Structures are given as C-alpha cells and as structure tokens.
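Lab meeting, item 3. Inverse folding demo.
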C-alpha cells in the first residue's frame, strides 16, 4: 500500500498551481499561501536521489522564500531519507496512515442521525474554514484564501463535508479527488463545544462513501492521537504503513 499512497502523493502535488519536478522529486506550490503544509515536495516511488538532486530541490524552495519540506512514505522510496539527512534535513514527525476499502466501510452507531451537509455558498466555505481553524487550535488562521481552497477541492473532483451549527459549522473535513485508485481524507476537525457528538465519524463516513461512489478503491488518512484513531477504526480504517515528514531549517 505504501507505493499506492506515495504514487497518490505525487499525483496530488501535480495538481498544485505551481509545479516543479527535479531529480526524482515533485514539489507543489500554491502562491496564495506560505504554509509549509501546502507547499512541500515528495519523491517519485523508488527514486535514488544524489546530493545534487537534493541541492536542486532545496533551491526550488529557497527562491520562493519557503522552508524546504517533504512528506512521503519511506518504504516506497527508502533511499530518500538518508539523502535528506545528509543534506541537513531533520524529521518533523512520523505518522501511521490508515486505509479503508469499500468492503470495510461502516457507519458507526449513532452517527447516521448526524446531518452531514455539502457546502453550497461562500458563507458555508467561510464557516468551515473558521471551524477547522478553531478545531486545530489556531494552527492555521481562517482566511479568504482558506475558504477558496476548500471550494476548489469541492469543485475539482474532491469533496468537502460538514455539520452545521447555529453559528455556522460544528465540524468538517475534506477529501482529495481520487488518483491512482485512492484518495486522501484530511483535516477532520470538530470545534471543542461540539465534540463527543459523533461529528468526526459521520463526516469521515460520508466522505469515504462519496469517494467509493466515484470509483476509488481505497481511502487513506493520518490520525493525530489515540482518540481520533478509534473514531476512524470504527468507520472501517486500518493501519497500513507510515509517512515521514522532513524539513530543512534555515
């Protein structure tokens, strides 16, 4: 599965507004933000980078005043981590990823009654962006650009789902458009005041079902803690491998 996830990472980055391919790496950039979680690179499966390849990749970030950063499944490109370490990159994190296939998808008890909605208006997208910012404790600020990115996901073959609240949005998540048979579900967040009501599970199940209806053979995601992992496992996700995050400080 690592090769599938890594092939997806390549295909997904190639959707970025600005693309740079150099020395076995694909770097995707969005001029609308400097966020390192959006502007990053990933290796082609099986690539064996030289020191020069890594240097050229670093330069692609430096000319844009961005932190050189990569996300990848190390088992799909085992030569990459040593080459990056040699160039001074450090590990930010190692995350386990979970995968769901159509035969394993389940709607957890109690979540079927949670009303999951599809955003339709600019106000919806703004509310979702603000709710996710709050859910992730201000890790990123809500902004017009963030709301616009959510709309692009929905309009470009991916999906955005959310649960309404009296003041806008209680929680939501996104799923990328499928590529190479799989799709990434990300950004599952619930505002603190609405947690414990099955919102994360309901949104996750709805997005996963949507991707399977569009022909995806699997959906994968990463989790941030034991609590969220239990939520995803109830929907049918199982651990399959790890993803590595590495960056180079200035």
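The presenter then showed the designed sequence:
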């Amino acid at each position: 599965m690592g090769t599938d996830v890594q092939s997806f990472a390549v295909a997904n980055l190639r959707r970025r507004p600005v693309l740079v391919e150099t020395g076995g790496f694909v770097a995707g950039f969005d001029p609308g933000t400097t966020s390192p979680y959006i502007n990053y690179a990933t290796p082609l499966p099986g690539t064996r980078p030289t020191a020069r390849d890594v240097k050229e990749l670093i330069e692609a970030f430096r000319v844009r005043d961005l932190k050189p950063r990569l996300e990848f499944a190390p088992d799909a490109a085992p030569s990459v981590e040593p080459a990056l370490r040699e160039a001074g990159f450090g590990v930010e994190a190692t995350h386990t990823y979970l995968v769901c296939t159509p035969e394993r998808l389940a709607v957890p008890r109690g979540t079927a009654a949670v009303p999951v909605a599809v955003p339709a208006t600019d106000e919806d997208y703004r509310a979702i962006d603000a709710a996710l910012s709050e859910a992730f404790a201000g890790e990123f600020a809500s902004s017009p650009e963030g709301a616009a990115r959510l709309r692009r996901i929905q309009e470009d073959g991916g999906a955005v789902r959310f649960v309404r609240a009296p003041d806008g949005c209680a929680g939501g998540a996104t799923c990328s458009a499928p590529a190479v048979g799989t799709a990434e579900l990300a950004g599952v967040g619930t505002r603190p005041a609405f947690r414990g009501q099955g919102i994360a599970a309901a949104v996750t199940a709805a997005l996963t079902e949507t991707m399977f209806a569009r022909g995806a053979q699997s959906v994968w995601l990463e989790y941030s803690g034991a609590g969220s992992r239990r939520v995803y496992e109830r929907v049918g996700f199982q651990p399959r491998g790890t993803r590595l995050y590495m960056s180079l400080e200035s």
